TrEMBL record:
The keyword Transmembrane helix applies. It comes from the Bacteria. This is Diguanylate cyclase (GGDEF)-like protein. Residues 568-701 form the GGDEF domain. It holds the Pfam family GGDEF. SUPFAM superfamilies: EAL domain-like, Nucleotide cyclase, PYP-like sensor domain (PAS domain). Residues 711-964 form the EAL domain. Keywords: Membrane, Transmembrane, Transmembrane helix. It comes from Sphaerotilus sulfidivorans. The chain crosses the membrane at residues 345-363, 369-389.
Length: 986
């Protein structure tokens, strides 16, 4: 065997292909030795598919209830037997019945009675033969004879006299399937050299041609060419067809009714008629598939009549087999074997449904049945094996990660102690000796060294004893307390106990982790989560909780006197600072934040003990007056707050005069729940602002004001601005902290208006609400890439440009194609483009976003994670997220000097990023002290107003031409002087 052939065989036996190889072997077995099992499976699938497709079979029409179309059954039923005598009837009675049908002008008669033996009265056979010859279109049945084991051994035919008098003979065999039910018949069958058409097909041909001869009959056109007769076969079948799931409804006339009232035969003119026994206990019932897995029992004549109705409607189904079955079963399995697709619920569902859908389509459009049971079973086996292998791989991966985590824990700053079976120390590290004291040493018992409260010591010792009887790690549920030096608080510890495997299965490893910093950070995070980072005030969720609690604090239900208890009386003030956006537009975000901070302190200093102040968001605050008060008192309190807001605030050498619009809502007058009160107060605030601002408005029960048409006009104007490319980009440089050289620039959106450049804060909300985010984002990307081309054509060496994309753009799967098309069109290297995503967007759908970012990185585009620290991201997701840079949220950078918690978050973010080998950019640097702190913490790059303001492209080009010339020295950010280099750009 050659090397290439050996490698091919090894590739086919790869783990990813093994399930499909086994599926292929199963299919071969079902198509070969295990064919009976395949047949059973295909029958089950056929019943399901035909049930779904029965209403849409080609040519099928709903038969009328009155039986004016299709074949009619003359039923020899119980009533006929009771009136005309027991079975078998004399043949003269059959002759009378045929004469009656002849006089009625029927087209043809299918006689479902077997006249195989001569009558006791020979003249009776002559009488019946004469009636059949007079009618001229009577078809008689032929049946195979079977031995006791069911094997055919001959043919049961009518008397030669009667056979010669019949227009044709047809076989009436209904083959029984593997599950004991009858679903179809062979259009041709025979014994040795003899051949017969199916009885319904022979009747149809006789009715069409008027005789048993003629090669152009419907039967000859319907059936396939018969095979050469085999004289060695006692019974053979050819051209098997299946009856549709929803058979035609047939009309039955009792034989006694027809003979007793010949006038009833007038409706039979020109129609095919079946005569047969339907009486109970005479003709064996034929089991056929019914609804919901049930069995319908039909008499032989009913079955033959249904087959003829299906022939007339063209709904008989031809099953595909032989080569077609092998190809349609094996080719999909071979395709998956050569190029397996990753296992997924969609693939499993598609593999099970698509074959059934294809079979249904063929059944409904072509009246063909494709057995798909083998393909579905083999595919299900492969998908099940793939799932089991995936689960096994996941278990193996989890086990390896657990072992890695335990090994990593050994080298961290935790106390690690090995114990023998008697609880004596075998080995301990320096941290354990530090916590347990100088007496801690190998050979000493651990219990006396534990300086713990009695309950904590008992919990730990009991956990150590329990873990000796198991192999999994054990961790007590509650933190334990270990005493420190006198005067210091107890050290909270987390204990983890790991039993060692054989041959040291009597030993344990105890790991004690100090939770002091974790619990402190947890308290700080919990506080920060429920409080505003800038002002320290409660944020909206905490405020709503407090409001809801206050509204529910009153007694519920009737009081002691039996009357309803009064609802709590309180007031809600919604405060919005008038025209605050102008401060941010003219002075920058840092100065605007300073104004908000001072304003919040004013409001907080003016709060009474019974009042709760919170920041709602942006320049909006809410205040809860928890002391019972009437609406007039609430309005008076709101006017006092206007006076608190009014005095000027000096920022940046400017005295800023502020105003506020305050809406007031009182409970229970304006509402009894938090949502209603907030809505009323906010609506009232809107009325105060619409009236000119710096005033108070009560909530009342007035409806909300109509939408401001100016907002609608602004939204329309924004849509036009996007279409006409009115938006421009300014660029803020990013600098390396070690040498001060520019290493990047962030593209910032601006909208030129009559009153100056509008920042995104004034319009981005309407952009998002109006569904224009994706369109605007595409134009921003295109504009940034075009600007990079212009800088390159001007001979500059541009730094990478960062472009922010919104969460909605993150859901757009066309983003990589858009970026690739623009880069190719402008001939810009992909490394000069950096895509920024926010942490909250990254955590919204991490699996989808990971695939999107990997496609971008494959092109060479860099990825930055923006606003890190604000989204409560999962570190597991962050570890797998393909990012090239992490940007710290400016809120943490701006509050590092005042809040130790913010500095700790910045430090932890830098350490985390460096652990992931990703550089860090600190945004919002606005003071020399912040810069020095970032340098001490090991930050890589910085960005902010202290270093450079956002600039239009031409101004930034001048800086690049000056600073990025090959012969120009790189500027440095000085460690000593507050006058930073590069200088501020104004």
């Amino acid at each position: 065997m050659t090397g290439t052939s050996w490698r091919g065989l090894r590739a086919l036996a790869a783990p990813a292909r093994l399930p499909w190889l086994l599926a292929l072997l199963l299919a071969l077995a079902l198509l070969g030795p295990a064919q009976p099992l395949r047949v059973r499976i295909d029958l089950l699938v056929h019943d399901l598919v035909s049930t779904l497709a029965s209403a849409r079979l080609p040519g099928q029409a709903t038969d009328p209830a009155d039986g004016t179309e299709g074949p009619v059954i003359i039923a020899i039923d119980d009533a006929s037997l009771q009136a005309l005598g027991p079975w078998p009837w004399p043949r003269t009675l059959h002759a009378e019945l045929i004469d009656t049908l002849r006089r009625a002008g029927v087209q043809a008669i299918g006689y479902g009675v077997m006249f195989a033996e001569p009558s006791r009265q020979p003249e009776d056979d002559l009488r019946l033969a004469a009636a059949m010859r007079a009618q001229g279109r009577v078809v008689l049945p032929v049946l195979p004879l079977r031995d006791g084991s069911g094997r055919p051994q001959g043919v049961l035919e009518p008397l030669p006299l009667l056979a010669a008098s019949a227009a044709a003979l047809g076989h009436a065999e209904a083959p029984i399937d593997a599950d004991g039910r009858i679903r179809g018949l062979a259009l041709q069958a025979g014994s040795g050299l003899q051949r017969w058409e199916a009885l319904p097909l022979a009747l149809q041909r006789v009715a069409a041609t008027g005789s048993g001869g003629g090669g152009g009959s419907p039967g000859s056109r319907l059936t396939e060419p018969p095979p050469e007769p085999d004289p060695t076969l006692p019974w053979w079948r050819h051209d098997l067809r299946l009856l549709p799931d929803r058979p035609a409804r047939l009309h039955e006339i009792s034989a006694i009714d027809l003979l007793g009232d010949p006038a009833r035969a007038g409706a039979l003119l020109g129609r095919s008629v079946w005569v047969g026994v339907t009486a109970t206990g005479i003709d064996p019932a034929l089991p056929t598939p019914g609804r919901a897995g049930q069995v319908d029992l039909l008499s032989t004549v009913q079955w033959q009549a249904r087959v003829q109705a299906a022939l007339e409607q063209g709904t008989l189904v031809r099953p595909l087999g032989g080569l077609w079955l092998w190809l349609l079963t094996l080719l999909p399995l071979l395709g998956m074997l050569l190029r397996p697709l990753p296992a997924s619920p969609a693939l499993a569902l598609g593999w099970l449904l698509l074959p059934c859908a294809a079979a249904t389509l063929l059944l409904t459009t072509q009246a063909l049945w494709l057995p798909v049971g083998t393909l579905a079973c083999a595919g299900a086996l492969a998908l099940l094996l793939e799932r089991l292998m995936a689960l096994q791989g996941a278990r193996r991966g989890l086990r390896e990660e657990r072992e890695l985590a335990l090994a990593t824990l050994q080298v961290l700053g935790e106390a690690v102690i090995s114990l023998d079976g008697q609880g004596r120390i075998v080995q301990l590290n320096a941290r354990a000796r530090q916590w347990l004291g100088a007496d801690a040493a190998p050979g000493r018992a651990l219990a006396p060294l534990l300086r713990m409260p009695a309950l904590d010591r008992r919990i730990l010792l009991q956990a150590l004893d329990d873990s000796r009887h198991q192999t999994a790690p054990l961790t007590p549920d509650l933190p334990l307390r270990l005493a420190r030096d006198p005067g210091q608080a107890d050290r909270p510890l987390l204990a983890s106990i790991q039993p060692l495997p054989a041959p040291r299965d009597d030993q344990l490893v105890l790991v004690l982790t100090d939770l002091s910093e974790v619990m402190s950070a947890r308290r700080q995070i919990e506080h920060d989560r429920r409080h505003d980072r800038l002002t320290g005030l409660p944020e909206r969720r905490l405020f709503i909780e407090q409001l809801t609690q206050q509204l529910g604090a009153g007694p519920a239900g009737p009081d002691a006197s039996g009357s309803s208890a009064p609802a709590p009386r309180l007031a809600l003030l919604f405060i919005d600072i008038d025209r605050f956006a102008r401060i941010g537009d003219h002075l920058g975000h840092a100065q605007a934040d300073e104004v908000l901070l001072r304003l919040a302190r004013r409001l907080q200093d003016g709060c009474h003990r019974s009042e709760l102040l919170a920041r709602w968001g942006g320049d909006q605050f809410v205040m809860l007056l928890r002391q019972a008060c009437d609406p007039d008192a609430a309005l008076a309190r709101a006017r006092e707050l206007l006076e608190l807001v009014s005095p000027d605030i000096e920022v940046g050498g400017l005295a800023l005069g502020l105003g506020a619009s305050i809406g007031v809502a009182c409970a229970p007058r304006d509402g009894r729940d938090a949502d209603t009160l907030l809505m009323r107060a906010r609506t009232a605030m809107g009325r105060a602002k619409a009236a000119g601002g710096h005033r108070v408005a009560g909530g009342g029960t007035d409806p909300a004001p109509p939408p401001d048409p100016r907002q609608l006009g602004l939204e329309t104007r924004l849509r036009q601005a996007i279409e006409q490319d009115e938006f421009v980009l300014h660029y803020q440089l990013q600098f390396a902290l070690d040498d001060g050289r520019p290493v990047g620039a962030e593209a910032l959106l601006r909208w030129p208006r009559e009153d100056g450049l509008w920042l995104p804060g004034r319009f981005i909300g309407l952009i998002d609400e109006g569904g224009m985010t994706v369109a605007l984002g595409e134009r921003v990307i295109a504009q940034a890439i075009a600007q990079l081309r212009r800088w390159r054509e001007a001979g500059l060496a541009p730094v990478p440009v960062s472009v922010n994309i919104s969460p909605r753009q993150c859901l757009d799967t066309r983003l990589p194609e858009l970026v690739a098309e623009r880069l190719a069109q402008e001939q810009v290297p992909a490394a000069l483009l950096k895509i920024e995503i926010t942490e909250s967007a990254a955590m919204h759908d991490p699996q989808h976003l990971r695939g999107l970012l990997e496609r971008l990185r494959a092109m060479g585009v860099q990825i930055a994670l923006d606003d890190f620290g604000t989204g409560y991201s999962s570190l597991a997701h962050l570890r797998d997220m393909p990012v090239d840079q992490i940007k710290i949220d400016p809120g943490f950078v701006g509050s590092m000097e005042q809040h130790a918690g913010s500095r700790a978050i910045v430090e932890a973010t830098i350490a985390l990023a460096h652990g992931l080998k990703v550089p860090v950019v600190a945004e919002g640097v606005e003071s020399a002290r912040q810069l020095e702190l970032l340098r001490e913490l090991g930050c890589d790059q910085v960005q902010g107003f202290l270093l450079a303001h956002p600039l239009p492209p031409d101004a930034l080009a001048a800086i690049l031409a000056k600073r990025l010339r090959a012969d120009a020295p790189s500027p440095h950010i000085s460690r000593c002087s507050p006058a930073l280099s590069p200088p501020r750009i104004t």
